[in-house]
Design goal:
By secondary structure, the chain is α/β, with parallel strands linked by helices. It has 2 domains: 177 residues, 2-Layer Sandwich (VC0802-like); 208 residues, HUPs (Rossmann fold, 3-Layer(aba) Sandwich). 40% of the residues lie in helices and 18% in strands. It is built from 14 helices and 15 strands. The strands form 2 sheets. Strands 1, 2, 3, 4, 5, 6, 7, 8 and 9 form a 9-stranded mixed sheet that branches. Strands 14-13-10-11-12-15 form a 6-stranded mixed sheet, with helices on both faces. The longest helix has 23 residues. The radius of gyration is 26 Å and the shape is elongated. The mean pLDDT is 92. The structure holds adenosine-5'-triphosphate and magnesium ion (MG). Magnesium ion binds next to loops.
């Protein structure tokens, strides 16, 4: 039984020795499976070392086993494992020697604190020389609980006890926790996230992590507007999102000169479209430098004036790489729910000054056209200003 229960059964006084990870989607990947598994293994090691744990990860029977140091805070591990892309389910297991009598005694003690619900024993034997097969182990252990008054239900048990027979030990575990699934970060190439300080763009980036992408971030800021607040907020978002991928970069691009220049020649109604075209051209420079294969934004059709389909076409047309918009068909509530789910919401709602609101019209253009924007852009040497902004970007590694 897979649980999202925040308080699963952790018996007092019986420490867990191992955390185990299943990676179901990877199983579908046929011959490429070792490639995906190697990356997941690396990411697990990295995450454990960031927690200060033991970073040797073993792989066996389509599972990854992570030894837990004595006194490990299980909640830290649960938090971590539920957020690593590629982890489908995970569990915490007790490790015992190859001794069935000891296993029976242990199971009896463990089960003593639990509700006597319909149960099943599920054994998997990867170590074939073990003197009993899985059916025999299921029967022997099942009999222990039946004697204690537990009803058996092999088809739809409310609690399953799993036994894995490994070469050097037996693992016993029950609760399975749900991970976020998907593919391990690093298995699908890199994208550049256009990250604002709002709710949407961090969720969009997070969704691409789940498809195995690495993410480099670009944020445009107007240094005259609450520079410190913006920096703190953007750094917090990136640090949070970054926790489970290898080090990556954030480009903090100064936008003040460009905005001033744009305000001087571009009608207020069209400024937002132009700001965003400029953002994409600078992001393209970042993508070239970072060898990225696409962009990701938090756009959703019609959410605000800059996101009408016509405006999006006019904005995205300056990008030379595909623009991925995982939120494109969602409404705000759906995005908010995802932001809560992924834990970005609380940071996203901190107050900050959004550079995009600088000198805009009350009724912005919603039918932006590429030809018209090209005409507007001819008024000034934007390329030089874009190059300078890119050159002056502060690059921070997380
Ligand atoms: P959120 O603020 O996350 O996206 P929003 O609804 O406020 O969503 P807009 O401000 O219109 O959306 O911006 C749309 C998209 O443009 C953002 O999702 C983001 O990808 C990009 N963007 C906007 N402002 C910035 C910025 N200052 N730096 C980088 N990207 C930005
Ligand atoms: Mg925004």
């Amino acid at each position: 039984m897979v649980t999202n229960d925040p308080q699963p059964f952790f018996p007092d006084g019986e420490p867990f020795h191992i955390a185990g990870v299943h990676s179901a989607e990877l199983i579908l990947k046929g011959k490429n499976r070792p490639f995906f598994e190697k990356i997941l293994m690396k990411n697990l090691r990295l995450a454990i070392s960031r927690l200060g744990g033991i970073s040797e990860v073993q792989q066996t029977m389509g599972k990854f086993l992570l030894p837990l140091a004595p006194g490990t805070a299980l909640d830290d591990y649960r938090h971590m494992l539920s957020r690593i892309p590629g982890v489908e389910t995970f569990f915490f297991a007790h490790r015992l020697p190859h001794d069935l009598a000891q296993l029976k005694t242990f199971l009896r003690r463990l089960a003593a604190g639990m509700d006597k619900v319909p149960f099943a024993i599920r054994t998997r034997r990867s170590y074939k020389p073990f003197p009993m097969n899985s059916v025999e182990i299921n029967r022997e252990l099942g009999a222990v609980l039946v004697a204690e008054g537990w009803p058996v239900d092999l088809n739809r048990p409310q609690r399953a006890f799993h036994v894995d027979v490994l070469k050097d030990s037996l693992l016993l575990y029950s609760d399975l926790f749900r991970g976020c699934g998907g593919l391990p970060v690093g298995s699908s190439g890199k994208v550049v996230s256009l990250l604002s300080g709002g709710i949407d763009s961090p969720v969009a980036a997070r969704l691409l992590y789940n498809r195995g992408c690495r993410v480099t971030y670009v944020h445009y800021h107007n240094q005259t507007m609450d520079a410190c607040g913006v920096r703190n907020k953007i750094h917090r978002i990136v640090a949070f999102l970054q926790a489970y991928q290898p080090p990556s970069r954030l480009y903090m691009v100064p936008f003040q000169h460009l905005q001033k220049a744009i305000v001087s020649f571009c009608p207020a109604r069209e400024r937002m479209i132009l700001y965003r075209r400029v953002m994409f051209r600078i992001a393209q420079r970042v993508a070239d430098k970072e060898d990225a294969l696409g962009f990701v934004t938090g756009d959703s059709i019609g959410q605000v004036a800059s996101q009408t389909l016509e405006n999006l076409r006019t904005i995205y047309s300056v990008a030379r790489l595909p623009v991925f918009t995982p939120l494109i068909g969602m409404n705000k509530q759906q995005v908010v729910d995802l932001a809560r789910h992924y834990g970005t919401y609380d940071i996203s709602i901190l107050p900050y000054s959004d550079c995009c609101t600088f000198m805009l019209a009350r009724r912005p253009e919603t039918h932006g056209r590429v030809e018209r924007m090209r005409e507007v852009e001819e008024n000034i040497d934007l390329e030089t200003l874009e190059q300078e902004a890119f050159h002056d970007a502060e690059i921070i590694t997380f």
